[in-house]
Every structure is written in C-alpha cells, then in structure tokens.
Amino acid sequence: MSVFRRVRDITVANLNERLEQSQDPVRLIDQFLIETRQEIMEAEKLHHQYSGHTKQLKSQVDQARAMSSKREEQALLAVKAGEDHLAKLALQEKMLYDEKIDQYSGLYAQSLESLQELENQLHELKTEYQTVYSKRQYYYARMETLRLQQRMNQRMNGYGAQDVPKMFHRLEDQVSGMEWEARSLRDLRKAGQDIASQVGSTIQSTLDEELSRLKQKLNKAGEE
C-alpha cells in the first residue's frame, strides 16, 4: 500500500491514451509535469518526516538495549556480592527494557520498511518526470514543425507554380488590350489627318475656280 496519496489526475498509465486524443499534447504534458512535481515535493516532505521518525525509533531501541545490558551487568554484580534482592530489582528493570526493545523494534522495522517504500516511489516519480519531460521536448518540436508548416502553407496559398500560366495569360490579355487601344487611337488620328487633308484640297480647288472666274469677268469688262 502506498504511504502517500497520489494526487495526479494524469498518470503514466493513461498519459499515452490521453495524448492521442489531445489537440494540444504539450499542454497536457505540462499539466502532467506540474502534478508530478507537486507529488514529488509532497513525497520528499513525507520522506523527511519518516526519516526523522525512524531515527527516533532506532534511538529508543538502542537506548533500551543499552539499559537492558547495563541492568544485566548490575544484576551480575549484585549476585556476586550476595545481594540477591538488588539483583532481582535490576533484573526486573531489565525485563521492562527488554519489553521496550520488542515494542520499539517492531515500530522501527515497520517505519524502516515504509521509508524504503517511499524512497522507491520517489525514485519512480523522478524517473517518470524525466521520461515525460523528454517526451515534452519531442512533442514541442513536432508542434513547432506543424505550426511553421501551416504558416508556410498559408503564405503559399494562391501562389503555387500551377497559377503562373494563368497569371501570364491575364497579363497578356491586359497588355493586348492596351496595345489595341493605342492602335485604335493612332488610326483615328491618321484618319482625321486624311480627312483634313482632303477637305483642304477641296477648298483649294474651289478657290482656284473662283479666282479663274473673277479673272474671266475682268477680261470681259475690259473688252467692252
């Protein structure tokens, strides 16, 4: 049985399954790391308390053994001195210390076992943390690659090589239209110049005829 309560909503057992369903695996991994780090801190705090408690129990056992041994020596001295009453008192007190040894030895063994279990769990948690942190680096790199690919696709949208011919066709149509307009204006100006020239020739012919008529009229008047 675990000596401390697991506080994580996400564990290694279900992390991979949740990663496959997550739209943002990096955020999910960060949540796991935060919860795991919190659990490590709580486990380290509990380990410190257990370690101190275990040392106190060992100290009680060691003191009881020392006093039991001391009372046994005193009882031997009393027996040698013929003081059986003092020997019994020393042995009676020795029995109390022996009982204390049995009691505290059991508590010490239990605390030592729990301390070892807690150390194993701490090691497991730290290993999980490092393993998942490495996964975070990998998924972050993948997400960054995907983000950059999406940005590139957005920039390339509508600018692919397959659109180049269409672009030049539109440009060709535009330039051809401009050239047609320029030719039309040039032809119109030329036509205007031709008309003006024809009109000028007609007027000149008419003036010549009128001048000739006037000269004939003058000649007739002189003959009369």
From TrEMBL:
The keyword Repressor does not apply. InterPro entries: PspA_VIPP1 (IPR007157). Keywords: Coiled coil. It comes from the Bacteria. The keyword Transmembrane does not apply. Residues 101-135 form a coiled coil. Belongs to the PspA/Vipp/IM30 family. This is PspA/IM30 family protein. It comes from Paenibacillus brevis.
